[in-house]
Amino acid sequence: MVDEVREIALKALYKINEEGAYSNIALDKIINDNIKKINQRDIGFISEIVYGTVTWRLTIDEIIKKYSKIRIKKISSWILNILRMSVYQIVFLDKVPKSAAVNEGVNLAKRYGHKSSANFVNAVLRKVSKKDYEEFFEIENQKERLSKTTSMPMWIIDKLLEENDFALVEKICKNSLIKPKTSIRVNRLKISKEDLEDNLRELGIEFEQGYLDDFLVIDKIRNIENLPIFKNGSFTVQDEGAGLIPLVLAPKKGDVVLDACSSPGGKTTYLAEIMENDGKIDAWDLHEHRTKLVENTAKRLGLTIINTETKDASIYDESLKEKYDKILLDVPCLGLGVLKRKPDIKWERKEDDIKEISQIQEKILDTCSKYLKPNGELVYSTCSILKDENENIIEKFLEKNKNFTYCNIEEKIVEKNKKIKENNKKTGIIKFFQDEGNDGFFICKLIKK
Q: What pLDDT, on a 0 to 100 scale, did the predictor assign at position 344?
């Protein structure tokens, strides 16, 4: 008898690893498709298996290689994913008995393979133990040890080591494994922060203050989008690092603002809230289904100044020259600052992607900078931490555009937040590496002289 909960997790892993689906999207879809069959505890277990297996894939595969006579690439996709999720349970989940992980893995192998597949899975899993992971800490080569103990691809480690010392790279890798908390942003146009806190207490939801005024950090909650106070637009879910970006741009009431890479709309809607829903925001994205996400979020939050358009931000439009007071360019990036939320990035991205994506970033900045009014301000941001996507892009842009310069980030933002002040190494730039609480990101503010 196959355990239905583990089978759901297996199907999600197959979508992610074999069909290239985003982990969060694949997981949400498969849970929603089976919502009538499972309870809240099941949802938590499925999420744990899926995110854990994806996060630890490199380490898990090294353990499988140790005991498998068949090369990883030769193992069928379904059987490999069964092995991966079973090894994850044995090595990293203390509450799951090894016997249960082995037996359920064998049962799944019978359904998604054949008798010899089940025998193979049984033979491998019975040899696996927590000691297999502990042995990786004894590896002498420090880069290899770091890669296998934190499940980080070697190319990412090498790239980070080009720019940082080993201690910092080790910290980045370890922090990428920490389960992220959920932070929410109060919509002050609909509710006061105090009233939102009262509502959360009434629902029995634990929270703590964020480091930004409009944010609360909540824990132990699932299906947050089903809460009435979410549906009525009292708050939205957003990481505080992402929330800092609109604060740095600091638009004012009545401004004309461009958010050139706006989907899914978290930063766009925060800009509108900061502007007290007074002014105009043009929100672009390459694909219509993504601009719809922005529209839906704005509608839920009761914001009316956001105009969405399906538009390529890298292609120049003469009619928009010097039109905007403020511009936000939260450009596409590798996403190495958000690995704890999107662990599949580690396996989908390759080192060769850096050149291609940095060219896109450079083109968007060069094109959209022409839409800024004299004395207007522009924020360039990414959820990545490589200089090729951040500092190097800005320096190259400023060399070619002498009418732009770094803009002081408002003192009230920097002074109020010790965490930001410590990272404000250069005027006009804030850069965080991922830590226990937040994602890694880069923000640069420029002014057009």
A: 92
The structure tokens 């103990």 sit at: 149
Gap between the Cα atoms of 440 and 432, Å rounded = 5
pLDDT value, residue 414: 52
Min mean pLDDT across 9-18, 414-423, 433-442 is at 414-423
Write out the chain in H/E/C secondary structure: CCCHHHHHHHHHHHHHHHHCCCHHHHHHHHHHHCCCCCCHHHHHHHHHHHHHHHHCHHHHHHHHHHHCCCCHHHCCHHHHHHHHHHHHHHHHCCCCCHHHHHHHHHHHHHHHCCHHHHHHHHHHHHHCCCHHHHHHHHCCCHHHHHHHHHCCCHHHHHHHHCCCCHHHHHHHHHHCCCCCCEEEEECCCCCCHHHHHHHHHHCCCCEEECCCCCEEEECCCCCHHHCHHHHCCCEEECCHHHHHHHHHHCCCCCCEEEECCCCCCHHHHHHHHHCCCCCEEEEEECCHHHHHHHHHHHHHHCCCCEEEEECCCCCCCHHHCCCEEEEEEECCCCCCCCCCCCCCHHHHCCCCHHHHHHHHHHHHHHHHHHHEEEEEEEEEEECCCCHHHCHHHHHHHHHHCCCEEECCCCHHHHHHCHHHHHHCCECCEEEECCCCCCCCEEEEEEEEC
Q: Which pLDDT value is given to residue 194?
A: 96
- Estimate to the nearest angstrom the gap between the alpha carbon of 419 and the chain centroid: 20
Q: What is the mean pLDDT of the chain?
A: 92
* CA-closest candidate to residue 240, choices 417, 19, 2: 417
Q: Which residues are catalytic?
A: 383
CA distance 309 to 282: 7
Cα separation, 150 vs 177, whole angstroms: 7
> CB within 8 A of 227, min separation 6: which ones?
203
Q: Which domains does the chain have, with CATH numbers?
A: 4-134 (1.10.940.10), 182-237 (3.30.70.1170), 240-448 (3.40.50.150)
Q: What is the pLDDT of residues 121-166, one digit of tens each?
A: 999 999 999 999 999 999 999 999 999 999 999 999 999 999 999 9
First-residue to last-residue Cα distance in the chain? 70
Give the integer Cα–Cα distance in Å for 349 and 358: 14
pTM of the model as a whole: 0.92
In angstroms, the CA 34 to CA 90 distance is 25
